[in-house]
Amino acid sequence: xxxxAYVRHKMLPEQTPPPNSVGTIGWLRTNLFSGWFNTLLTIVxxxxxxxxxxxxxxWALVPTWGGTSLGNCREILQEMGREGHFAGACWGVIRExxxxxxxxxxxxxxxxxxxxxxxxxxxALSPILFPEHAFRLIGFSAIYPFIVxxxxxxxxxxxxxxxxxxxxxxxxxxxxxxxxxGRLAATIAAFLLPVLWWLxxxxxxxxxxxxxxxxxxxPVESAKVGGFMLAFIIGVTGIAASLPIGIVLALGRxxxxxxxxxxxxxxxxxxxxxxxxxxxxxxxxxxxxxxPPGTKFDLVLRVTIMVTLFSSAYMAEVIRxxxxxxxxxxxxxxxxxxLDYWQSQRLIIMPQALKISIPxxxxxxxxxxxxxxxxxxxxxxxxxxxxxxxxxxxxWNGILWELYGFIAVVFFITCFSMSxxxxxxxxxxxxxxx
Amino acid sequence: xxxxxxxxxxxEVAIRIISMNKWYGAFHVLRDIDMTVYRGERIVICGPxxxxxxxxxxxxxxxEEHQKGKIVVDGTVLSSDLKNIDKIRSEVGMCFQxxxxxxxxTILENCTLAPIQVRRVPKKEAEETAMHFLEKVKIPExxxxxxxxxxxxxxxxxxxxxxxxxxxxxxxxxxxxxALDPEMIKEVLDTMIQLAxxxxxxxxxxxxxxxxxxxxxxxxxxxxxxxxxxxxPEEFFGKPRSDRTKxxxxxxxxx
Lengths: 434, 255
Prior knowledge:
The complex is a heterodimer of chains A (434) and B (255). Chain A is mainly alpha-helical. Among the domains of chain A are: 26-61; 155-217, no CATH class. Chain A is built from 17 helices and no strands. In chain A, helix 12 (276-290) packs across helix 13. The longest helix of chain A is centred in the C-terminal third of the chain and has 31 residues, at 341-371. Chain A is flat. Chain B is an alpha/beta fold and 255 residues long. Chain B has helices at 2-6, 53-60, 82-91, 107-117, 123-136, 152-164, 182-197, 209-215, 233-238, 243-253, and strands spanning 13-24, 27-38, 42-46, 68-73, 76-77, 92-95, 170-174, 201-205, 218-223, 226-231. In chain B, strands 6-7-8-3-9-10 form a six-stranded mixed sheet, with helices on both faces. In chain B, strands 2-1-4-5 form a four-stranded antiparallel sheet, with helices on one face. In chain B, strand 7, helix 7 (182-197) and strand 8 (201-205) form a beta-alpha-beta unit. Chain B is globular, with a radius of gyration of 18 Å.
């Protein structure tokens, strides 16, 4: 029988790891050259990347920035001694048309308005993206949507102001009438009064003010709004509105109130069961049939609402996944401390559920932003439809790669930024140390 | 124990349960529970798993709803009225088997959240109270850490401190040491003993029979949703009367 008893008398000191397992050499060994098969794969991959760049770079790096037409580009390339289908890119089209790709048919003398709105977007987003540094700006974020409407569509300032006032009315009702009326009555009043205000009072009052003091910008019709500006308007609105709607739908779907639950489930399943293009067609054609005759309901607004509803159904399911991942104990702990339903949702449940759902939520955001290109099917001037329009110009007929490449790069930058931000957010919120 | 002799029980009723019944669907979990808890009592509830002991104490702060009978906590009748439920929950503290700390908040925030939100205590005062109770459970230095950075025993002590910050008059413990590594059980039990010595009314579901002997003034044995036997710890462990109790005790004390 083997010896069982053993006692260690001297404890071992800590030692440094062997040199070829740490540092650059260690990294190369473990990641690129661990074993003959992985070494082979590394070499093949390097060769492939080299071949790709060797073909793309000479095509892309050509001095055709000043080209005035496709024919002119070809001449420039011929002088360099390049011929054939892949002789080189014709970047002149981007130089001539990039403003159109960004702004659509927006009048060029007032480009400052969308540009101002675009920079305002970053100011408005900063308190939401980096609350610990810029939360003081949250008031600006709240009025920013109204500023955008005024800047981009122009017209009298009183329209957006009266629309904003509706929300102020709702807030005031909730704040001052909750005590005397009770929570339920105050909530209903806070919902009904603004709606009545918007329907019956807002536009005559706005008209009166506009007569006294116009403060109007040159109006721009929606058909002229296009390009990446349109993608941003629809995308950012959809993103900002679909998250809260999605949260409400997710909570409704998990509710014990059977009718509320039924409505939420019905809405989510209906929207998810229908292609987005169908909804866009509904927005562009059918919706007008149901409106009272003579109603002017802007097409961009209709489409934005549809995209938002579409996205919020998916959002609801992503958030429901986050809610389901929380243990029942979290609800019970919140309950046992005496927190009411909304307190525990706001302080305990949602911060955790949303954190779990970040990858899904941002995935939805990115999907929504890219889906904005679908509005081309109802003849809104998104970048893709604009590129088709540019090709209809005889100067640029036949140009594909340059335009699509440019559009792809702008979309990539935007979506990749969102993706990186979500990773930053996940790291920042990682407090569970699992 | 001479300390336990000093712990006094008053004649004031803290909790009264009158022929309470509860069903999960068709399953009859609690059957005709009658029970009176006086202020200052330390009651240990034990019994085999599935006997309804956790459900019983969860009914007391309305985490579970009972279908028949009456529960009166601190003079407030437990009905389906939300106001009553919130009132009772803020008077009754509870500790769970799995601690259920809020992982996205620091230890200090865990302790101050409910006082600030429910009791409307100013932030500074709430933080002072929290530090007071964190010192009491002997982990003030962990205040700025997150629950995930603490050991199980420390987390459970934070959970106790979090409940105490609401200044409850009654504490419920639902198997507070069952999920802990053996070497951490003592630190949690010490905290609970300290609490008992200060006169807190405690109902504790636990399998720690040593704790029951040392601290409890009454041990309740439950089986099949009913109270089968209750007695002072000395009598309960020394001369159990029911066969079910004898069987249960022989199983848990047998090795």
